[in-house]
Design brief:
Blueprint (H helix, E strand, L loop, with lengths): L10 H18 L6 E3 L6 E4 L9 E7 L22 E7 L1 E10 L1 H5 L5 H26 L30 E3 L18 H13 L14 E3 L2 E8 L1 H25 L13 E3 L2 E5 L4 E3 L13 E7 L4 E5 L10 E8 L4 E14 L16 E7 L5
Parallel strand pairs: 1-2, 2-13, 6-16, 8-10
Antiparallel strand pairs: 3-4, 5-15, 7-8, 8-12, 9-10, 11-12, 12-16, 13-15, 14-15
Length: about 375
C-alpha cells in the first residue's frame, strides 16, 4: 500500500514551524505588551506599510502645530499668513538570520529527545531576545557596554537603521542637574526626584517650532494615561532603598489602583509613582568611564528609558516570506545531505521615531521618549 509522507522539508511543515516560532517568540518578547498598531498610543508602534508590497523604506511625516497670536479685530490678515512646517522619519528593513545544525540521523538516535524540536525552541528564545535587544538599543541610541546585551558586540551601531544618540532635549543626566556625562557622580542614582523631573520635562515639551521638542503623549490603556520607566535591575534596587519598605509598599498599591491597571502593559510592572509605571528589564544599556563606555564621571551608569506613546517604530517585510510569517524557517543540509540545518530569517527594521526637517536623523529630535542616565549600585 502506498504511504503518504510529510517530509521535514515540506512547505506545509515549514509554515507550521514558522508559525510556532513566531507565536512563541511573541509570547517571550518583553515589548509585545507595549506594542500597538499605528494610531495607537503605545510605546512601540508596528508599521505595516512594508508588508503590503515591494519596498524596503517607509517615511512618516509629522506636521507641526500652528503657533502665534490670532489676527484680532480690524487688524490686517494680509502678510500674516502662516505656512505648514513638518519633519519626517524614515526607516528601512533588511534581513536578520541565524542557523542551527541539527546533526545527522545518528545524532538523533543517540538521544531520547527531539533535536529539531529543541532547535525550534532555542530559535524562538533567540529571536525574542534579538527583538528586545534591538528595541532597547534603538531607544537608547547606543549599544553601550556590558553583558545585558547578549547578542551584539560592543561597538555595534545598528542595522539597517543606524542608532542615533538622543538629542539634548531627550537626554537627562541624573535628575537634570548634571550638565553632561562627565559631571555625573556615583551618588546620582535613581530616586523619586528623578521621576518627578522626567514628568516635568515631558510636560514642558510643547513643540510648534523645528528646534522645540514635540509634546510627549502619555501611553493610553483601558482609559488610563501613563508614562513607563524601564529601569535596569540595579536602578530598581536603588529606588527601593531610597523609599524604604513602607514607601515601596505604597508604590505597589498605587500600581494596583491605577486606572488601566488590568491592561497587559501593567503585567510585571513593579510600582507606580506620579503617573509613571516603573518596570524592571534585564535587557538594558550601560556605560562607564572608558571611551567605549561614554567617558562618564563615574564607572557605573545605566541608561534607563522614560517612555511615552510612539517612541520606537518596528517594521516587518513579510510579503516575500512563506505564509506571510514575520519569521521564516527553512531547511538546508551539509555534507551532501547527511546533516540538517534549520535557518530562521526575519525581515525587519527598528528605529526611534525621530523626526527631522531635512530627513537627516542627525538634525532631528526624538519623539515619545527621554533617555535617563543614572548611576547605580554595583551588584555583589
Amino acid at each position: 500500500m502506498a504511504r503518504t509522507q510529510v517530509l521535514p522539508t515540506d512547505p506545509a511543515a515549514l509554515k507550521l514551524w514558522s508559525a510556532k516560532v513566531a507565536i512563541d517568540s511573541k509570547k517571550k518578547t518583553y515589548f509585545d505588551k507595549m506594542s500597538g498598531n499605528e494610531g495607537s498610543y503605545m510605546p512601540v508602534i508596528m508599521k505595516t506599510d512594508l508588508e503590503k508590497g515591494p519596498a524596503d523604506e517607509v517615511t512618516t511625516t509629522l506636521v507641526a502645530k500652528l503657533r502665534g497670536k490670532p489676527v484680532e479685530g480690524q487688524e490686517k490678515l494680509a502678510g500674516r499668513v502662516q505656512r505648514l512646517t513638518w519633519a519626517t522619519h524614515k526607516m528601512r528593513i533588511d534581513k536578520h538570520r541565524q542557523a542551527v545544525n541539527v546533526g545527522d540521523v545518528m545524532d538523533q538516535k543517540r538521544v531520547n529527545w527531539s533535536i529539531p524540536e529543541q532547535a525550534r525552541d532555542r530559535l524562538s528564545d533567540y529571536m525574542a531576545e534579538v527583538y528586545d535587544e534591538q528595541i532597547t538599543m534603538t531607544a537608547a541610541g547606543a549599544r553601550g557596554i556590558g553583558d545585558e546585551i547578549q547578542h551584539y558586540p560592543v561597538g555595534y551601531g545598528g542595522f539597517p537603521n543606524a542608532f542615533v544618540a538622543p538629542d539634548s532635549q531627550h537626554l537627562m543626566f541624573f535628575d537634570g542637574s548634571r550638565a553632561n556625562a562627565g559631571a555625573m557622580t556615583s551618588g546620582d542614582k535613581l530616586g523619586t526626584n528623578v521621576l518627578d523631573r522626567l514628568v516635568l520635562r515631558a510636560k514642558k515639551q510643547i513643540g510648534g517650532q523645528p528646534n522645540r521638542a514635540v509634546r510627549m503623549e502619555q501611553i493610553r490603556v483601558d482609559g488610563g494615561k501613563h508614562f513607563v520607566y524601564l529601569a535596569a535591575p540595579e536602578s530598581m534596587y536603588d529606588i527601593r532603598r531610597e523609599v524604604g519598605d513602607a514607601g515601596w509598599l505604597t508604590l505597589e498599591k498605587a500600581k494596583i489602583t491605577a486606572e488601566g491597571s488590568k491592561s497587559p502593559i501593567f503585567t510585571g510592572g513593579k510600582a507606580y509613582y506620579n503617573g509613571v509605571l516603573l518596570d524592571e528589564t534585564q535587557t538594558c544599556v550601560k556605560f562607564d568611564t572608558t571611551a567605549a563606555g561614554g567617558s562618564y564621571g563615574t564607572p557605573l551608569i545605566a541608561r534607563n528609558l522614560f517612555l511615552g506613546a510612539n517612541a520606537v517604530a518596528v517594521a516587518h517585510g513579510t510579503k516575500s516570506q512563506r505564509g506571510g510569517m514575520k519569521y521564516e524557517l527553512t531547511e538546508d543540509d551539509e555534507d551532501y545531505g547527511e546533516e540538517g540545518v534549520i535557518i530562521v530569517r526575519m525581515i525587519a527594521g527598528f528605529s526611534k521615531c525621530r523626526y527631522s526637517p531635512d530627513g537627516n536623523p542627525a538634525n532631528g529630535l526624538d519623539f515619545g521618549l527621554i533617555a535617563n542616565d543614572v548611576a547605580y549600585t554595583a551588584s555583589a
